[in-house]
Amino acid sequence: MFTGIIEQTGRVSKLEPLKGGLQITIESALAASLEIDDSVSINGACHTVVSRDDTSFTVQSVEETLRKTSIGDLKEGSKVNLEDSLTMQKKLDGHIVQGHVDTTGTIAAIEEEGANWLVTVSYSPDFAHLIVPRGSISVDGISLTVARLENDRFTLAIIPYTWDHTNLNERKTGDRVNLEFDVLGKYVLRALETGYITPKAPGDIVK
Question: Residue 88 burial by CB count (10 A; 0-12/13-18/19+): exposed, middle or buried?
Answer without folding.
Answer: exposed
